[in-house]
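CORE FACILITY INTAKE
Project code: CF-77B
Contact: R.S. (postdoc)
Sample description: multi-component assembly, four entities in total
Requested service: structural model of the whole complex
Turnaround: standard
Below are the sequence entries exactly as provided by the requester. Do not edit them.
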Amino acid sequence: MQTELQAELKQTRPFRSPLEELFVSLQRTAAVFEHSLECALKPSGITATQYNVLRILRGAGDAGLCRSEVGERMVRRVPDVTRLLDRLEDTGYIARARGGDDRRYVTTRITPAGLEALTSIDAVVDGFLRTHLGHLTEEQTRTLVDLLSVLRHTR
Amino acid sequence: MQTELQAELKQTRPFRSPLEELFVSLQRTAAVFEHSLECALKPSGITATQYNVLRILRGAGDAGLCRSEVGERMVRRVPDVTRLLDRLEDTGYIARARGGDDRRYVTTRITPAGLEALTSIDAVVDGFLRTHLGHLTEEQTRTLVDLLSVLRHTR
DNA sequence: CGACAATGCGTGTTTAAACATCTATTGTGA
DNA sequence: TCACAATAGATGTTTAAACACGCATTGTCG
């Protein structure tokens, strides 16, 4: 008896353990939706990573955030936030200023252009979420979120 | 009331919808474990993507698989399987041969060295899985796998 | 049979990820 | 106070991801 995940990946052998099946299920599911989101965002000229940064900076408001704080808030950690912000600065969606008390810090803020772009992109993402994740019941959604939380926190 | 995911990402604003929380939970969880696995595999000199290919080719046995079939079986699809296989061929873990009936096809097979490496790497991965995913109950594991399956299959 | 589409794979190129290293600034303790 | 560690950020470099395009082989249909 083959699971549908095995059929999807054309696996000829059974999973070696339930944990292996869980890991593959998780990675496969995340990869599928990550790819779908990238495709949905492409017309907006932005990547999922950049979208994440814009969301973070909108949440930070006028105070903005420094480079390392942005990095700590990202869903997927990236090892080179500096050049990630460089690229977003080139698009005009964010602005950086080195005017604080501690002159090591560079405060990054979302610009009005970035806010405007983000508003329309949010609509795209909302549609994406409803289309691709909206078929679960409320209870299924809640259970899944809870179990993922349990999974992330060993012990 | 803030969820622990929000605390983890230092989110100041609530999720805009349960679906957004689900998506972020999924991506965050997958990213954390993907990173952990990469770290666990690093001493073996292999990436998670390469590990995936070796597993696929072991499953295929002596018959081997052509480039496109390998690509279709991967957990995360990559757009350049050719050079992915190039690199694995350089390590000696796989071998390619263009000797079939249809001369367009190139059959890729895992080598004895690849099989041997894979055996020891499997032990590493098993340890990784137990350490990082082994704290769920059997029922939680099963529920999670089932819900992820439902999630992947819209409608 | 012969033109042409389809398929399988390789190659070229651009961009970003990943890792190490470096500079500037600030904190700390003898 | 002054050496030195710690922190924040930038930079250099290598590698792989991503995308488009090209070549060779096979299938198909007039």
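Facility notes:
- The mean pLDDT of chain B is 95.
- Chain B touches chain A through 66 residues (CB under 8 Å).
Invoice: internal transfer
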